[in-house]
Amino acid sequence: HSGIPENLLEKAKRAKALIYDIRTKDTSTRQRLPVVPQGIEKYAFIQALEELAQQLGKANVEINDKLLSVASAVVNPSSTEEVQKIVLWANKYSIPIFPISMGRNLGYGGAAPRVRGSVVIDLDKRMNKILDINPDDYTCLLEPGVSFYALYEAIQAKGFDHMWIDVPDLGGGSVVGNTLDRGVGYTPYGDHWACHSGLEVVLPTGEVIRTGMGALPGNNTWQTFPYGFGPYSDGIFTQSNYGIVTKMGMTLMPNPGAYESYLYTFQKEEDLEALIEITRPLRIGNILENVAQLRHGIQTIAVKGLPRTKYFTGSGAIPESVLDIIDAEFKKIPSARKIDPSTLPKDDYFFSRDRIAAGVPDLVELLWVNWVPNGAHVAFSPVSPIRGTDAMKLYSLGKRRHDEFGIDFLPAFIVGLREMHLIVEIVYDKNDPVKRKAANDCLREMIDDAAKLGYGEYRTHLVLMDQVAGTYNWNDNALMKFNEKLKDALDPKGILAPGKSGIWPSRYRGRGWEM
Ligand code: ADP
Q1: Residue 268 clears pLDDT 90, i.e. is over it
Q2: What is the mean pLDDT of residues 84-89?
Q3: For the ranges 10-14, 21-25, 483-487, which has the lowest average pLDDT?
Q4: Catalytic annotation on 108?
Q5: Does 499 sit in the ligand 1 pocket, CB within 6 Å?
Q6: Is 304's pLDDT higher than 60?
Q7: 459 catalytic, yes or no?
């Protein structure tokens, strides 16, 4: 890109030339046309975009003519008011829009919309302000484009050593985006959604609301008391298509003063059952204060075993008694070996986990895409209680299907407080159609296998959302019927992220969009 915004009509002309070219010369590449949303004629769509560009500035509306792209255009609003304008525009022309914060939802769809031709609202470019960091209340107020890195650096720059943030495995994404997708991190504040307080939301019909205490003009409690008065509405804006979040409050953790990460290795796959049984009381009893990770040895080239973290609240050394309990518990497994971090090479993955455990953003985990050429990854993420039998059932289910499809099995159990997520990352060559299909087929089988055993995913890739939503079907799909009722009430034109989490607006429903 030259950096000079191109005239939209120029682009449109180019697109038209391309269409002409393809129609006359090469019909086999017809699917490569710049996509426009269904139900609107190409030229009318481009005129509608031109109208939007007049409101937002030409530089902030870009037709996406990249080959094979799902999005038709990308718009960059600078304020809540501009988000409202986009939403009203989308209603006027019945154009599907898809909001992203930073679009780094890697493994779950990235920046891609579910419906071809959607206009992506990219909140990262111009709505990336940290609106407030409160060092007394330990809270902050963020726009969607603030990354974990940016928040971390801002807190450091202000010299607020007494506060920590919590980061997910990959720190490059947005705090708001990750929290709305109910992503997790590894400090005691790892349940990001549970740690948020207050939202500002543009509804699909263009009204703006503030949730919790934010609804009371002049309040000073928006970021300290999440509930306010009346029904607690925040939850419906997570993993949903009911609104565009333009501000979010987040609580920050007090710096514990000291912390220590542990690495234990266990030799046998069969040790998993006992290991999970040992971990449960340590987590529920808060002896292990952090989310624990049990990684399979081959999960990444850099990972050699079990990173494990322990926090100590207060200053000074961690009491020996706590270390002894943890050590004694894990040593009940005969093959257990505690690794002294000073014996590890400096670039060992342990140190990446150690940083993440202390709320320092990191990107090393992404290196696993180097496992295969042109590596891409997609996750299978079922939830279970912290029980050995459940771990073994999910483990053998995953292993069997991976063997069947010839895929390396890279599981990790992420142990929360009373539940654990199994995260299986399938790393595949995205340029190889056979490998792509194997990854997709393997995932679809695992989702069904897991559902038959009573397990469901906590989050999934765009492509699998209908299938996963379909497994949450108790009482004749009562929950989805409720979700659809909400969708139709809040978004009568069905413009906002159609199909997200399997929720289709009425004008799409039952017309072949579900996969
Ligand atoms: P990140 O960059 O942190 O990984 P994304 O921007 O990819 O997060 O967001 C993850 C998903 O959450 C998106 O695909 C989108 O569906 C939803 N989302 C993100 N930001 C918003 C927002 N501000 N309002 C509504 N939904 C959002």
Answers
A1: no
A2: 98
A3: 21-25
A4: yes
A5: no
A6: no
A7: yes
Residue nearest to atom 8 of ligand 1 (CA): 177
Query: Can you give the pLDDT at residue 8?
Result: 52
Domain 472-502 has CATH 3.90.1150.10: no
Q: Would the CB of 120 count as within 6 Å of ligand 1?
A: no
CB 493: neighbour CB atoms within 10 A? 18
pLDDT of res. 363? 80
Is a pLDDT exceeding 90 seen at residue 322? no
Q: Which ligand 1 atom sits closest to the C-alpha of 178?
A: 3
Choice from 75, 84, 86, 105 to test ligand 1 binding pocket (greatest atom count within 8 A of CB): 105
- What's the confidence (pLDDT) of residue 301? 43
Which CATH fold topology does 257-465 show? Vanillyl-alcohol Oxidase; Chain A, domain 3 (3.40.462)
Residues 6+ away with beta carbon under 8 Å from 379? 107, 108, 423, 424, 425, 426, 459, 460, 461
Q: At what angle are helices 271-284 and 320-330 packed, to 10 degrees? A: 150
CATH 3.40.47.10 holds for 8-122 = no
One-letter amino acid of 406: G
> Could you tell me where the beta strands, DSSP code E, fall in 296-392?
306-313, 337-339, 375-380, 382-385
What average pLDDT score do residues 427-439 get?
92
CA distances from 450 to 127, 266, 392, 397, 403 (A): 39, 26, 12, 8, 16
Q: What is the pTM of this model?
A: 0.88
Q: Domain 130-254, CATH 3.30.465.10 — does that match?
A: yes
Please state the domain extents for the chain. Answer: 8-122, 130-254, 257-465, 472-502
Question: Which one of 242, 259, 311, 458 is the catalytic residue?
Answer: 458
Can you give the pLDDT at residue 102?
87
